[in-house]
């Protein structure tokens, strides 16, 4: 619905339910807790494939910099404007997800007129 007006990404952060952790998931998607960025990329690929993600996926560094900066663990929905400012931060998911609230924020952002850069005066 908004694909023409906004870019959507999944940012893969620290694995919430690794098989070697305290709260592993049951079922066929058994993932280990990555110890390197390369391993995290592999786990992210497996996860994206198993869940059939259609959005492009970015992968957080192994130091969890993005997750820490955005308070993203275990998962969150964000809207970031073209200028880099966060215009919407959803609650911790999945219980904190409010799709209607997020859509309202996205519509408001898309309705804003772009700020024009001031022109230099010619002398």
Short description:
With 123 residues, the protein is of the alpha+beta class. It contains three helices and four strands; from the N terminus they run βαβαββα. Strands 1-2 form a two-stranded parallel sheet.
Stretches where pLDDT is under 50 for at least 5 consecutive residues are: none
CATH architecture of the largest domain: 3-Layer(aba) Sandwich
Q: Report the CATH superfamily of the largest domain.
A: Glutaredoxin
For the record, the CATH class of the largest domain is Alpha Beta
User: What is the number of helical segments per DSSP (H or I, 4+ residues)?
Assistant: 3
The total of beta strands comes to: 4
Whole-number count of domains: 2
| SSE-based structural type | alpha+beta
Q: Report, as a whole number of angstroms, the end-to-end distance.
A: 47 Å
Query: What pattern of helices and strands is seen along the backbone?
Result: EHEHEEH
Radius of gyration from CA coordinates: 18 Å
Give the key terms:
alpha+beta, Glutaredoxin, two-stranded antiparallel sheet, 11% strand, 123 residues, elongated, two-stranded parallel ribbon
Can you characterise this structure?
This protein folds into two domains: 1-72, Glutaredoxin; 76-111. The model has no long low-confidence stretch (mean pLDDT 82). The radius of gyration is 18 Å and the shape is elongated. It has helices at residues 37-51, 65-70, 99-111; strands spanning 10-12, 57-59, 78-80, 86-89. The strands form two sheets. It has a two-stranded parallel ribbon. A two-stranded antiparallel sheet has the order 3-4. α1 links the parallel β1 and β2. The protein has three helices and four strands, in the order βαβαββα. The protein has 123 residues and is an alpha+beta fold.
């Amino acid at each position: 619905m908004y694909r023409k007006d906004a870019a959507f990404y999944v940012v893969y952060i620290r694995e919430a339910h690794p098989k070697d952790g305290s709260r592993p998931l049951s079922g066929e998607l058994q993932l280990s807790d990555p110890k390197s960025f390369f391993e995290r990329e592999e786990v992210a690929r497996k996860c994206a494939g198993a869940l059939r993600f259609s959005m492009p996926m970015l992968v957080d560094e192994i130091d969890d910099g993005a997750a820490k900066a955005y308070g993203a663990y275990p998962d969150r929905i964000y809207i970031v404007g073209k200028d880099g400012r966060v215009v919407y931060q959803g609650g911790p998911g999945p219980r904190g997800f409010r799709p209607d609230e997020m859509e309202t924020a996205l519509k408001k952002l898309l309705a804003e007129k772009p700020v024009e850069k001031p022109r230099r005066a010619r002398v």
